[in-house]
Design a protein that fits this description.
Elements lengths: L1 H16 L3 H4 L1 E5 L10 H8 L5 E2 L2 E2 L1 E5 L4 H11 L3 H14 L6 E3 L2 H10 L3 E6 L8 E6 L1
Parallel strand pairs: 4-5, 4-6
Antiparallel strand pairs: 1-6, 1-7, 2-3
């Protein structure tokens, strides 16, 4: 009963604010030709922090959404455990020492979806509302 009450309250809150469940979720997406069927959050963190460039033995290239977008803030908070300031500091150190550079940033979820769909080996994250048949979903983040 408590679960039903909480679910009803959440549904009501989302409908009042105009946010759908699909918009509240983030989908980690890949080019449809990617062999991987899924990705673990810790593996995803290593990819987005430049510690590895492979997923299931296949070379991948991650792309980001623009700094300050809600999706980017949510993604890095949930997957990497860093806020924007910590992330900027992390990449500044790596770039200064020549040990890496951050993923390319694109304007928004639509741009990320279009990029990933058009570039084999690419990986990104989008709001649930941007998911369609042109990309492969590897992970859903609540």
């Amino acid at each position: 009963m408590r679960y039903t009450t909480r679910l009803l309250a959440l549904t009501l809150l989302l409908s009042v604010t105009g946010i759908t469940a699909a918009q509240a979720e983030l989908a980690v997406i890949a080019h449809p030709g990617t062999a991987a069927a899924g990705v673990a959050p810790d593996e995803l963190a290593r990819i987005y922090l430049g510690k590895t460039g492979t997923l299931g033995g296949e070379r991948v290239t991650p792309v980001d959404q623009a700094e300050g977008t809600p999706a980017r803030m949510k993604f890095y908070h949930q997957v990497v455990g860093m806020d924007a300031r910590e992330l900027k500091s992390y990449w500044s150190k790596l770039m200064f020492t020549g040990k890496g550079k951050p993923p390319q940033s694109l304007a928004n979820g639509r741009a990320v979806r279009e990029w990933v769909a058009a570039h084999p080996g690419s990986l990104g994250y989008v709001e649930g509302s941007h998911v369609d048949g042109s990309i492969k979903v590897l992970l859903i983040l609540p």
